[in-house]
Description:
By secondary structure, this protein is mainly α. It is built from four helices and no strands. It has helices at 2-14, 17-72, 75-85, 114-126. The chain is elongated, with a radius of gyration of 40 Å.
Amino acid sequence: MKKYQNKFLWRNLFYSNFTIVIIFILIGFVLNGLINLYSKYQTTKEDLNYIRKEEAEDKNKLSIEQNKLDNINTEEGKDKYIRSTYSVKKSGEGLVVVYDAASSTYEIPKAESFFDSLKNMIKNLLGK
């Protein structure tokens, strides 16, 4: 009789409304965790795709720069690089410099006006 009462007690406890509510709450927590895990998976997948794309672009840039470096390491490439970067010439060569004021970053220094020189002199006398 005691066994039957224990079985009956457990069966009533298991099938009670309170237990069913607790089970649904636990299922809700598990589903919420799975949804959060899936969203993190999607974010990680997007990040991985972005990093792979960046890596491919960086490898492309590296190969281009490596080709430029290999070209510069030759005598002709070194000469071409120096001539394109700096306006230099070899002795005995004529050089024509074409100055395009619109695209140049070089500014021609202007003479300091009397007022500016007076202002600078006063600043220097006062210490700042």
